[in-house]
Write a structure and sequence with these properties.
Length: 162
């Protein structure tokens, strides 16, 4: 059995060493339309569970991403791209986001602040599932999905403020 602390330490070191190589640069602010957000999003195609994704972003002086508007959601969709086929295992095309409904089923809160989410973009069929408490975004349809926090997804997104 793998030592979880050693695995997380190794993950952190790996993120520091290769994060810029494997990351995708965020949607830039010099677009035609100015953005209201001062967040910079960056994706990492490294398969981890939600706790590891939170730790990896923290180690890199950011936090797991959470779009708080349609504009931020559009930025993230642009970064992750679109996988036009339906994967038989949706979490293989999913990226972790920073929210959960662990305390009360169906009541989604920001995993960092504990505040309720004001913006939602769930796939219609994904709102109720007792065993799936963590938030991800799918690259095949760019909508949010609730999945088990222990699953290893395709990757995760960190957000940084400038």
């Amino acid at each position: 059995m793998v030592d979880v602390k050693a695995q997380n330490l190794l993950l952190g070191i790996m993120m520091l060493l290769v994060g810029d190589i494997h990351g995708t640069e965020a949607y830039q602010k010099n677009t035609k339309r100015p953005l209201r957000s001062n967040k910079i999003f960056k994706k990492y195609d490294i398969s981890v569970n939600q706790v590891q994704a939170i730790d990896a972003c923290r180690i890199m002086h950011g936090r797991l991403a959470l779009p708080e508007s349609k504009e931020e959601d559009a930025q993230i969709r642009k970064i992750i791209g679109n996988n036009f086929y339906m994967n038989p295992k949706p979490y293989n095309s999913a990226y972790w986001l920073r929210a959960d409904d662990k305390n009360y089923e169906g009541y989604w809160t920001d995993s960092f602040t504990g505040k309720p989410l004001k913006y939602l973009n769930f796939e219609a069929s994904q709102l109720n599932s007792d065993s799936e408490d963590c938030l991800s975004i799918n690259s095949y349809n760019s909508q949010w999905n609730n999945i088990s926090c222990n699953l290893f997804t395709k990757g995760y997104l960190c957000e940084y403020t400038d």
